[in-house]
RNA sequence: GGGGGCGUGGCGGAAUUGGUAGACGCGCUCGAUUCAAAAUCGAGUGGCAUAGCCGUGAGGGUUCGAGUCCCUCCGCCCCUACCA
């Protein structure tokens, strides 16, 4: 019987469904394993082969863990609120719900074909009202904790979309999805005080089993820095300017103060003589797009203008000029800095530009030539003279605190989280506003606050969010009967993904968001796999919510995701008529190589040359491979195997269809060992080499379930299959063990072979085979023989051969004795079971 | 500018962590099978001036021995960007 992958896959997928094979176990006596994929946004374009790479990896782990006796929670859902569906709905004149439903069906169908062992009874979608009811409930928890507030903040306003975008959705002053321009505008928005949790978000990273790079990115994002607030009196005013600095020790080197152009004191302190210049500068800066202000490098020319006002340095009473400059950011620290040009590169550049004085206060550099930021003894610094940076900081902070001129403080780069969007397709806030401006929460038993039906999803003519169109919905009352209007902003897409891992625990309950007992059993997530693009935001937001829930006593772990793993992206060759990849892309079918192996390509139709470049697989680059095609041509099993075989899971790798053909051949070979093979026998067979290959494969695959190094595990399985193919006789017992370690990777073929071997127990819960150290032992060791560090041959010796015997045998080699002839042996290196090296001259 | 990662055959990648570089797979070559092709099977496959020499981006160092450790340089990728 031939290996007909389509028949085999259809058969076993139907069987699994009929048997409910991947239902989450309910007994609580066994150890648990919660393995989770970062759930996708179901886009309209469907999946390419890059998307399921992480899902295949987690499926291998899930299937293996089940066989190892764990209760496995393995689930999939949809991050289904979001702007693209809303925009698509607008284009098609349909409801976003319809678009979302359609996209989910496409995604689910594609995933189903891969034989991924999800418990589909736990499927969830964040846009489902039975789900977002609880998202609103969690919002209330945060609100009750005093973590939500409204603020008039500068936001990324996209006029074309009529909505506010989050910082991460804006790049180079444009919306990343559509390229529409984005501008800054002050608007009243809901904010979360994530900064309150800054220290804990930072500290608790320590105990997580996450890639070091991701932890580092989170640390930098939080950006904790210790320093001091220092207050400067403004000469002739009652106002004081507060600055933040990490180098209070350089205070005696301060020769001017700089405010952000937006700083609130600018208007008050600017002198009449400077008023026009200041106004002009502020207008110029205000006209610059966010892009212009943020893409400037640190070494960009410095601009600024003096206010004409003077500040008083608290430590020495010196009067120093107050400037404004755009290199001081309004949003960080206090929006004001004191400048010590001698020991800060930006201040130095600024002082040089405007010929401001530079005063050395830390010795060790040449401040006439450049800013010196290194350590050294302080000079010109009164009570700090002679101290190095650390001690000088302590001394000056003590002085400032004593004289009520400042204090030591900690500053975060992390900002509070802008949590509202002017969109339709998101969670409504469970809040109403009374006529006198009071914000009242919607009681828990009245959740969910459902999205109203609208006839259009655009903002209103007067610029209010789409929900404002639902007049009847907006007009409501408070629980105590006062008239009120509903909040018309919706939550950002991050909301749903902040807690979905908890909902999977009790996905269908209308009684609670999750069952506390079940939560105690399943949490934390043991393995969380997804792309590195979520390194900061999703993971930080989810950790924040989780910590709030922890503080409310609603979850029992401090952190949601114990182990995190980032799978690498899949790349593919792309063809573009511009060498930098910015021109027109062509499909592989539209181009041809000018001569085989030439590496030069042209467009078939026009003969125009095209440039090849390996790029991330994406629809816009015309270089995607559809998993459905792979399943049809080579089978889901071959594709799964190839994705795991391409290279280390964390690395990017280039997709090649021929690679799938290779893993398919491997499956064919395995098939032939079991199906209609006359060499397959019942009794035990003594064949140490094949047995060693088998046990080596068992060991490697078993370990790979922890290390996720599947590429080498698969290669060990290939070695076994090659060895078994060459053997004169094959034991049924070997194949039974082999099929079980193959099962997580290629589950459909494995099921078929398992059945063919006459096994009746379900393979998905069959016992995982164990390797036998005895079987891994070899009878003889091949020693490498070196003379003066160069390879001169090998010798086979018994495992327990003594040093002298091995060295004797090495010297007896003709290739060795020839070289030793007439020389004196200086040293003999012997590495047991590895090599001998004879040093002679 | 800062931070992180990486450089190994024609290609993807292995290498017990300082001990036979190139496992396994792709591709390629030859052979078997076939009227022929595909598929399949078998053999081979780092380079070269082939008793040997050279080879892990380049150069230096440590060592009996370096892909692996240390310095200098070159190149590529990712993240970040005036954060005081």
Quickly describe the structure.
With 841 residues, the protein is of the alpha+beta class.
Please describe what this structure looks like.
The protein is of the alpha+beta class and 841 residues long. The protein is built from 27 helices and 35 strands. Helix 20 (657-674) packs across helix 22. The longest helix is centred in the last third of the chain and has 20 residues, at 688-707. It binds one RNA strand of 84 nucleotides through helix 7, strand 11, strand 15, helix 11 and strand 29.
Helix fraction by DSSP (H/I, runs of at least 4): 25-40%
Q: What about the largest sheet?
A: 7 strands, mixed
Mean pLDDT, nearest integer?
Answer: 89
Query: Please, how many helices?
Result: 27
Low-confidence stretches: none
Radius of gyration: 34 Å
Tally the beta strands.
35
Class derived from helix and strand content: alpha+beta
Beta-strand residue fraction: 15-25%
Distance between the termini: 65 Å
Shape: globular
Q: Which features characterize this protein?
A:
single chain; 841 residues; alpha+beta; seven-stranded mixed β-sheet; six-stranded mixed β-sheet; 34% helix; 20% strand; RNA-binding
Write the layout of secondary structure elements.
Elements: H1 5-19, E1 32-37, H2 53-67, E2 71-75, E3 77-78, H3 83-92, H4 96-112, E4 124-125, H5 129-144, E5 148-158, E6 163-165, E7 170-171, E8 174-175, E9 183-192, H6 198-203, H7 212-222, E10 225-234, E11 240-245, E12 256-259, H8 266-269, H9 272-287, H10 290-294, E13 305-312, E14 319-324, E15 336-339, H11 345-354, H12 389-402, E16 406-411, E17 417-418, E18 431-434, E19 439-441, H13 471-474, E20 475-477, E21 483-486, H14 494-497, H15 500-503, H16 516-522, E22 527-530, H17 537-551, E23 564-566, E24 570-576, E25 585-586, E26 591-593, E27 601-603, E28 609-616, H18 627-633, H19 636-645, E29 653-654, H20 657-674, E30 680-681, H21 688-707, H22 710-726, E31 730-731, H23 732-742, H24 747-756, H25 773-776, E32 780-787, E33 790-798, H26 803-812, H27 814-820, E34 825-831, E35 835-840
Parallel strand pairs: 1-2, 1-22, 3-4, 12-14, 22-23, 24-29, 30-31, 32-35
Antiparallel strand pairs: 5-6, 5-9, 7-8, 9-17, 10-11, 10-13, 10-16, 12-15, 13-14, 18-19, 18-21, 20-21, 24-25, 24-28, 26-27, 27-28, 32-33, 34-35
Helix pairs in contact: 1-24, 3-4, 18-19, 19-20, 20-22, 21-22, 21-23, 23-24
The structure holds one RNA strand of 84 nucleotides.
